[in-house]
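Notes from the 1:1 (GR / supervisor)

We went over the backlog. Supervisor wanted to see one worked example end to end before approving the batch request, so GR pasted a single chain during the call. The sequence is below; no edits were made to it. Supervisor asked that the structure be written out right there so they could see what the output format looks like.
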Amino acid sequence: MLEELRNYVHATLSGATEDMQYGVPVFLNAHGVPVIYLFGSKKHANFGFLKSTELSDPDGILKGSGKPSKHIRVLPGKPIDKVLLSAFVRQCGSIERGTDSPIGPTNETRWKTMTDPHPNTELLMKLNLRDIDASATLFSDDFIWHFFNPKLPDVQGDYIGVDGLKAFFKAMAEKTEGSFNVEPVSVTPVGNELLVVHVRDKMYLEGSSVTTDAVVVWRIVNGQITEAWDIPAVFTAPEP
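Structure output shown during the call:
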């Protein structure tokens, strides 16, 4: 079903390009704006619109509590209403830059305020979490990602290697129906080995928008990322 939807987007959205952001396929229009995402589970697929507030929807077809992200749910075994989808997909083609995307900034711009010349900061700037495979050489073979969040016990834990990091973001995408987004705020080098990065995690959980401050501590040894701790502020974060 997702493959059929993917082919439909490329055939319908003029000049569409495809990207993978936090484990979710995202489609950019000819202006380079992320406008559509696809999220699939065993029970359904969401055909999502990242700029729903810029789309005409007088009949309230688009669903979801997200703003500006909303979706149309597609069920397996039922025909895809491409006429309905087309009414929104074609509108996506004319959206230009100027509003924020819930998926977050591109790798090129997201570190633009982090100008510290420390070599470890420069190395981390090369990391593209939207395309982890392209950044694989930045990690050591025994890299470990530690995720601390007792409110997400099925996701909390240690993830080993590049494949483990990909598995973490896939799990978060599934948990949040593709809405999980990490926005870097600041970075502080600590000595010659550690970087402390303040980020904001944004997502939709159980129908509610949640924004949480978090700290990611990166360990860099001999020019490679060897370990990272993702520690969100879970005890003072709002309940979903």
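Supervisor's comment: The two ends are 30 Å apart (CA to CA).
Batch request approved.
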